[in-house]
Amino acid sequence: MDEGFWEERWRENRIGFHEPEANALLVDHWDRLDIAPDAPVFVPLCGKSLDLDWLLARGHAVTGVEFNRMAVAEVFARLGLTPAVTKAGPLECFTAGALRLYVGDAFALTAAMLGPVAAIYDRAALIALPPETRPRYARHLMEVTGTAPQLLVTMAYDQSQTNGPPFSVPAEEVTRHYGARYDMALLTTRPLGGPVALRAGGGEEQVRLLHPRVA
Ligand SMILES: C[S@@+](CC[C@H](N)C(=O)[O-])C[C@H]1O[C@@H](n2cnc3c(N)ncnc32)[C@H](O)[C@@H]1O
To answer: Does ligand 1 have an atom closer than 6 angstroms to the CB of 124?
Structure first.
């Protein structure tokens, strides 16, 4: 699941993960993070998600990172914003108003580029990555955000029935990545729909709230 894999998915418009409106689980559960309306939030592996627009409309300063440059440009265009585009090490940074999207590899993003993060919204990011990459992703996310609170949307299904992405990341694996540094609460689950559920014979989406452990 390297950059080439995702570029091909975008080029061929095989982006079944992209939703036509803000994710209902985000809308229903975002307030559980209990952060200030204008607090800065980070959306890793953001695609061109309308969740970005929803978070902006709530008043947040929103930073994302995404491989696909056209997807990033599309977000600004649909918001009617003309971004300033600058180099940021190996990444490019598109900025306009309260929206800042980095184009390039999320693993090249640093804490200094990101600045303060009050909360992370991970939908289809952890589960987009193969098993061997997920531990590194979780460590990197905690490192660059100072273990910021998270709203984490994952899915769990029988991985032996079909391949990812999206991958099944069951509760015990979420605990493996984050359990040492976060207190975690399962907020809700809902039955998995779409082609993955058909291939896997069911499954569920899971929404968790992660709060950094007080040492
Ligand atoms: C499954 S999609 C989810 C997109 C978005 N979160 C959403 O809900 O629509 C995963 C996205 O992550 C991007 N991606 C995967 N690995 C990445 C990486 N290492 N750095 C930056 N973007 C990455 C892909 O291009 C793809 O757009």
So the answer is: yes
